[in-house]
Amino acid sequence: MSDEPIIDLSSDDYFMGEALRQAMKAWDAKEVPIGAIIVHEGHILSRGFNQVEMLNDATAHAEMLALTAAEEAFGNWRLNGCTLYVTKEPCPMCAGAIVHCRIDRVVFGASDPKYGAAGGAMNLLQHDGLNHKSTITSGVGEKQCSTILKEFFAEQRNKKNN
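^ that's the sequence the OP posted. Answer follows.
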């Protein structure tokens, strides 16, 4: 047998890698580099990356675009049994949509203590007053997810100062 590690195509690390690929598409489009994918039974239903500037739409966050595409692929707006992987902790808008779509599990990389709604600034994903709660797994691929965001914003500041 080989000493090479077996790639687990159903692991959180694998799927976060796919979300990171989406984040890089956002960066290439000069958008805040956040990527998301939605998985059902080990299969990717949808992918999304931030397109706020491109679409001139404040709601065009990676999660929102991935949710809409997943609803179409799944044939139902109720995304029971699905997991959302996203490179940064969802904001309140995205968290509200995640709850409404009934996503079972949310896995994110970089925390957002200022605006995050999955335990950062607040926790809408598990709020007692809402009709659904999502399980949260945080910190998957955190170093890569945080680094991409930091490098992107450093590059943006550098462009403004030159």
